[in-house]
Structure formats: C-alpha cells, structure tokens
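Task: complex structure prediction.
Instruction: return structure tokens for all chains below.
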Amino acid sequence: MNILYDERVDGVLPDVDKAVLLRTLRTRLPNLEVLHQREELKPYECDGLSAYRTTPLLVVLPRQLDEVQGVLRICHELRVPVVARGAGTGLSAGALPLEKGVLLVMARFNAILHIDPDARTARVQPGVRNLAISQAAAPYDLYYAPDPSSQIACSIGGNVAENAGGVHCLKYGLTVHNLLKIEILTVDGEHLTLGADALDSPGFDLLALFTGSEGMLGVITEVTVKLLPKPQTAKVLLAAFDSVEKAGRAVADIIAAGIIPAGLEMMDNLAIRAAEDFIHAGYPVEAHAILLCELDGVEADVHDDCARVRQVLERAGASSVRQARDEAERVRFWAGRKNAFPAVGRLAPDYYCMDGTIPRRELPGVLQAIAGLSTHYNLRVANVFHAGDGNMHPLILFDANQPGELERAEALGGQILELCVKVGGSITGEHGVGREKINQMCAQFNSDELTLFHAVKAAFDPGGLLNPGKNIPTLHRCAELGAMHVHMGQLPFPELERF
Amino acid sequence: MNILYDERVDGVLPDVDKAVLLRTLRTRLPNLEVLHQREELKPYECDGLSAYRTTPLLVVLPRQLDEVQGVLRICHELRVPVVARGAGTGLSAGALPLEKGVLLVMARFNAILHIDPDARTARVQPGVRNLAISQAAAPYDLYYAPDPSSQIACSIGGNVAENAGGVHCLKYGLTVHNLLKIEILTVDGEHLTLGADALDSPGFDLLALFTGSEGMLGVITEVTVKLLPKPQTAKVLLAAFDSVEKAGRAVADIIAAGIIPAGLEMMDNLAIRAAEDFIHAGYPVEAHAILLCELDGVEADVHDDCARVRQVLERAGASSVRQARDEAERVRFWAGRKNAFPAVGRLAPDYYCMDGTIPRRELPGVLQAIAGLSTHYNLRVANVFHAGDGNMHPLILFDANQPGELERAEALGGQILELCVKVGGSITGEHGVGREKINQMCAQFNSDELTLFHAVKAAFDPGGLLNPGKNIPTLHRCAELGAMHVHMGQLPFPELERF
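Output:
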C-alpha cells in the first residue's frame, strides 16, 4: 500500500495495465525513452524532499514536443495519471511520483530559444536551469531576477509550477511577477499560449492562475521571462544583534523608513554558527541574530541608502554593522546565507525545512513562539528567512533514528504552520504545497474555498489526471482530518501521529 | 430589440417577470433602494463609453453587505442576470446594463476601513475612489500607485474588475501588482476571501484570476491594496521631436539604457495642440511628437538619471529637452497629458478612444501604419500613449452626424486593433474588453483558448448570470464573425459594417 497517496481520502485512481501502457507508448512513440525496470525508476522516487518516496509506474524522458503531446494523449485515452517533473529540486514533494502514474520528465527540454535584449525577454524551454537564463543574458547586462537558493540546478518550468521566490523577491517579486508568456499542453495534449509578449493580456489572467498551480492544470512546454538590467552596483550590510526580537524589529523599521532593499535576510544563532562553520563567510558567531541587507541601483542612490539603513540598524540596537568591503566579501556574505540549509544539515542527521509566511509585524512574536515550541518539543530549530517579505524558513533538527523524533519534528512543524495561519499568514511562501503540506491546506482554506479550487481544476482537467493528491486536498481528506481533530482533540494535524 | 446584447450569438437570457422580481426584492430586502421607473433608470444606461446604451431592467443601490448578498441570492433563484457597476467611468462598456438584468451599483460602499502604515496596506470598500486611497494614506507618506486618468472619480472595485493601469504602471505595475486581498460574493451570494495579507497565498492564484475578470466571476465587496512610500522626489523631462518615429525610437533607447522611468508618455502633434489649447501646459505646439519622462526616487538617483535620460533623448534626435523647473511646472506638464482625452474631445464632435498594446520595438512601424490608415479612412487620429509599456491610445476623431463617419471610425479602430494583435500585442492594455471589444477577442484568441475561458467562467458561475455578453465572446459569436469574414473577405470585423 502506498501511504503517500491514500485512495481512501485522495480519490480512487484508475487501475492501469502497465504492459498495455508500455506497449502503446512504444508503438506510437518509438523514439521515446521509457524507463520501467525497478532499478531505472529508483532515482525518480523523490524530489528535493527526500522523506517522501514513491516508485513511479513508468518514467518517460521525451526530447521532442510531439512526444510530450503523444504521452499526454495516450495517458488521457488510457486514463493514466501524469506527474510532470523538472530538475527534481522542489522542497514540498510536488513532483512526487504515483505508483499508478507516469512520471513525465521535462529535463531534456533545456534550450535557450531566444534572448531579446531590446524587449528584455528570454524565451526558453522548461528544462533550462534558472541560473542559465541569467548567464545567457549577461552579455547584454541583463539578468533574470528570481533566484531560489537552488538556482544552479532548478529548472524554470519547475519555478513556474511552484511560483518560486528567492532572496531578491522582496524588491523584484516572485516568478509570477517576472513572466510574460508560457506555452502549455493541456491534459489531452492540446497546445495553448497563456499571456502575451505585450503588457497585460485580455480575457482571464490564466498565466497567473497557471503559475504556482503545481502541475495540476497542464504541462509547461515553453516560458518567456522578463529580464532586468543588472544594477550598476550592489552593496550589502551585515548587522549583528543580541536578540532575535531586536533584529525582527529592525526589519520593520527598515521597511517603515521607505527603503526597499534588494534582499533583507535574517539568520539566528544556530544558523549563523552552522553557516560560518561550513562557508567561513565572516559572520559574527556570538550574535543572537544577523541581518543581511542588500541595496542595489545606481551608485549615488545605493551610497545614500546604505547610510540610511546603517542609521536605522544602529537605532534598532544592532551591536555591530559592517558593509562588505568589496564584491568578494559581498558574495561571501551571501554564500553563507544561500548555503544555510546544507550548513544546518551538518548539525543533525535530519532536518525538516518549513516555509511559512507571516505579516512582517508579527515577526518578533512568532519568533518567540517558535523558541517556546522548540523547548516544548525538545528539538533545536534554526531560523533562516526572507525577513523583508515575512517568509520564514525554520529548520527543525532531528534524528530519524531516535524513536519519536520524526513524530515530534512533524508535530512541531505543523504547530509552526498553524501559527502562521493564525497570525494572518500562510503555510507556504515559495516552496509550494505539494504532497507535504496537503493537510495544512485544510487549515488554510474552508470548504467553500476548496470547492472553488476544485471547480477551477476541473475546468482544465475534468478527469483529475494531472498530479492528483497534491496542492489542493479533497474535501474528503479535510473532513477526515477535521473529524479526527474533533474526536481526539489534540494536535492540529493528528494524522502526523500515524507516522 | 437590443442590438448590444444579441441573443442569437451571445446566448439566450432567461425571461424575467419584472413585477415578481420587484416584489421579491421589496419583501425580502425592505430597506434596499430599488430604481425601476424609466426616468430613474436613464442615468444608468451607460458607463464612460456613452456610445453604448441599454436601459436596465432594475437598478439596485445597496448600502449593506447583506443587501448585496440578498440581491445575488434572489437573482440566482429567479435566474436574473446581474451586472455590477462601480463609479461608471469604464471605457469599454464593461458595466453596460442588460434589458433583462439587474444593475448592481456598489458606489455606496465608499468607506476606507483601515490604513496600516506598518504593513503598508489599505483595506477599503469597493466604491472608494482611487485617489481617495492615496489621500487617506498621505499622512503616512504613503500612496496607492496605479493612477488611471479617471482617478478622481473611478472606484477601486472597478479598478480591480478592469485591472486598471495609469501613467505610472511602467514602473509600479497594473492593479493586479498592487493588490493583496479581496473579499467577494459569488453568484449565489457566498462570501469568499481571495489572496492573503502575507506574501503569496497557497492554492491557485484566484486573486490574479479575478483581477481584470470584468464582473464575470463574482462581486467585489472589499479590497486590500499595497501602499508605497512616496518617492523623495520626482522630476519630469519634456522632449520635443520633429517626427513620431524618432520619438518612438527614443522610448526604446531609454529602456535599453536600463532606466525604468516612473512614467514615459508620448503625444503626437494633434494631441499636443489640443492639450496645449485646453490646459496651457507649456507644450511645444510645433513638435511632431513629445515625450514626457518622469524619474522618481531619492534625490541623488533622480539627478543622475535625469542626466542620462537627457543624453539619450538628445542622441535620439530630440529638438529640445526641458526639465520642469519646479513642482508646479511638473504638475502642469502632467495635467496636459492627463487631460488629453477631453482636450482632443474639443476638436471634433465625437472621438473613439482605442487601447491596444504592442511590443515596444514595434512602436515606430505601428505609428506609421496608423498614419496610413488615418489617410485611407479620411479621419484624423490623435496619438496619446503610455509609450514605455507599449500601451497606445489612438483617438479617432469623427462626427457621428455625418453619414458614414461612425462606420469609418469603427472600421479604422478595428484595423488598428488587428494590427496590434498582428505585431504580437493585444486589443486592450488597461480599459478592458467589456462589450466594446468583444468581437476583437475572436481575433485575439482561438477557439481552444476561448473554450478554456468559458470553462473557468463556469467554475465560478455555471448559470452564466454574471455580466453575460462581455469580455469573453461565445464561440457562436466568433463563428458567426468568422463565417462572415470568409464569406465577404473584407474587413477583419465585418459586423462593424452593420452600424
């Protein structure tokens, strides 16, 4: 039995005859690469959230658009669910395969089709890596702004599917704000264009609807992104604080001063020590919290803003404020932050990365509550986050081999996400819902809202064949959780106790 | 017969017993103000596009949320179509009433509920005027960025429904980029929240989907917008050119130089003369085209950018470049632009305002083509537009009392919009589709795309009661046009010949 897709609450999937499917694929798409042996399927069992694993029925690796179309048509005819996958770096098990489904790997569509420096756009295939777009645009002094920490590896198709963010999205927005147009194939293999090359597009905004829809509405086959001129200069300030609350208040003060930093990141002591030990970024290891504040633009402006931010930081009680001396030090400061996850990963055998958002003003209070929860569950929590836009990434440290620790980590994580919802935030900022947070969606939305989501899903995919069991929970799943909740009256997400 | 809603191609509307509807409204909502006499209905026959007029069955003017809910429930039960209306300033007949429908006027919901200077948000009712939000935020040095020319009068609910723009949307985005959350009532009166106070929101992006949906998906009852800090300073440059093509190229050069102006507007000679005559803005009346380029931000930055823009303008062949001496002159420069429509309106008894978008690089070519079409149809065209983001507003001058002029104006307008689609642009940048451009949507989208729009519409409003006949044409309407197109082989939108 597959515990990750639970037919009892997620809906019954059609039974598939693997031999028939394989034969049909081979007959109609003779050049398509298909993996079907157990050992071939192994590498595709999970995405970046490796705690969730399922062996797919089949993996297909198309190279041509008509192969993708063919796979979708065949799966539609035979009623086989399809899960699309890019680089597999997602952190919410959004590309987790199904035992009864085909995993459609888009990684080979990795061509940069056109860079238009006048229109400031790049037209690329979905398997192109995020960073590769900026590299291709660099000769024109342009770049693609959203920069998730996985940007070396993650693909733009996955970025669109998850509406990825990054350390610069406070100023430059999420993926949805940096897109012009996408080409998609619908569940039955029909080709559509969403968005336009020009400003806005009439009709309903299906481009925004599709962005962040986690593979439930169609398969992305081409992406046109906006490029931005590289800022003339970028400077970063590193401020140390003797309490996380002071750092949290400094964040609010910077924003209140009318400054929009290119990045405004916070790390607590555990994260600082881990990153320093791993990267030697030059962080003050005694500080209870640090803020990294990047300012970019033209020279004179940045100079002026740096002085203002320094003043705000000092008034907020920073024990020290340092500006990166040169570009090498600036890159080092950021390397510590961008490698905070793997760095923290060295402190314990396992960690569980959360991705909640909260209104900025709630920062100090939420941080205090997390500290309390950490003590209560007796598990260390490192806090790393995009402070400027209220997107927190608490990392819960545990050892899955110690009896009870995984359960405690999951319970603690659930409590943190419920806290986010309670203060007016949400259960995900940029990593998506995927399979991981499917239950927390029941806390985030009521049944009317979920019903509307299902109606929209049905407009694109009436048979429910695209990535079922992710992103939008069935009402049945929520009812089940709700019933258990009332019955047991304990944890907000009681199914976590079943692990 | 109502020529504006054509049941033959737009779908048959339910027959409504006005007496039963009136009695039901009065019984169940005794405090609701209902207009039903012919002379009371007269002022509500059109919105800002007065060429399109229909007398509504009834007008309701609720003051309480439960009245709006009650109206929707009653109309849902009795199968009566509902058209929502804000301030009625829309320019695409999006709030044009239906003979068989209720006009739901939301103008009395005009309270500013909360300004939160820390979170930089304003929570307001849908009837609040666009400018009133900035006025309420002014004590905190904040403002609401999107500024349509009608900002004194237009309401924020209408801005959301049409995804309104303005002269500053090149830098600060359209309405959709400045929204956090809306409250809506569905067609059957159910209350839903779309979006969230925090960054992003999980699930499908229904907030973006709803924005610009022109009243087809639900009724907006509350809006939470983002506020921005007022820029420290703003300067405007006025450049004169001896050809519109040169001005068009200067726009591309400014963008290519990596500068993002707060506004970048262009006017041709006819518009310049009209505005100067009306407002005395100080425009050079001999110029074939002028550009207004506003730069905002901190003092040092703006100073630097002004120098760079001046250099670009001079290299592009500007015959003169003037910077507004002081704030009074800056405001005067903008007043000319913001009043260009009424100013041009003084040149001829009637004018027809277009709203196409094109990729920026196509600007010089499209301007030349418009000049050619103007000669061909023997009608003057004044060009006023948001050059920076490729959103054109050609104003076609005509006299409806001269036989054949209205027909020629409509035909010329259709040709301009088809030209926009042909060069990769769209038939509307910020005014919406409404009833006005319903036929051009058949040129913009193919039947697969329109089918998907209808499926999305059905997810929200399966009975098709909300604003039918606007925004998304029926396939039947497009087929009819297409058939006539093939048959007659002349105009792209042959029905225009029927006027």
